[in-house]
Write a structure and sequence with these properties.
Length: about 325
Amino acid sequence: MKAVRIYETGGPEVMKLEELPTPEPKRGEALVRVQAAGVNFIDTYQRSGAYKSALPSGVGSEGAGTVEAVGDGVSAVAVGDRVAWCLIPGSYATHIAVPSHRLVHLPDGVDAPRGAAAMLQGTTAHYLAYSMGALGPGDTCLVHAAAGGVGALLCQMLKMRNVRVIGTVSTEAKARVAREAGADEIIFYTRQDFEAETKRLTNGAGAAIVYDSVGKDTFDKSLNCVRVRGSLVLFGQSSGAVPPFDPQLLNAKGSLWLTRPTLTHYIAEDEELRWRAGEVLDWIAGGKLQIRIDRSLPLAEAGEAHRALTSRETMGKVLLIP
């Protein structure tokens, strides 16, 4: 098999494509031939050292493919099954051994690329839209990076809940993507003050929930965009980590809620994983949810995939195709 590995943290150049022995599935595992691997910001954090992990290590945590072999005690999947997964380290590879209880079957009508593209970002958007607090029809939410992989899926899911969506984007091309995903209002953060525009669009009240994946560059103004007793959901840090601050600020700005969730805790149980991923994949199969794939690259170009993602030039999912 071939796999992308890192032996030290740093820039995209530290990732190396290597020839390795193909693993034998252990008890409870399935060996999957990877047909598509998703590229996510968390991969870049681990590669750069922003998130610590033991080295050397594989890269990537999401993909889809076909089961080639199963270990003892496996009944949930069989050879030939089409499956997808997320939060499984080492997914930038031609083969991967996965605990069989963490695999999700791909429904008819969802191919491997779309299955891989849906898993991490789709289940993330699902818990953001459905598990971050009470939202009623007509409530307004602010979604940063509304044309990104999670952002465009989140906009679609919020519209399923009859929520009014304000999306921030940097370009006209990204505005078109966000509007197609259901954003009712667009703010160009490169030439508009998103705080002032959010206040204007909500008659000064602010948004029920602000979804912020940017972090350091947007955090302070994002807090100012939250309505009284509303929530700021900080689920990423593409611009860097948020500095420490006094929690009294949440009181002063209107008894706000602040959470820093991670997908790990929202699909920790197998039943919850199957629920979230199952709904996302079924929506895709039925045409209710659209997955946008920005580009597909070979494993050898994992560095270019990371560069494209971190430069914010992508609109949708980046995939690696073994």
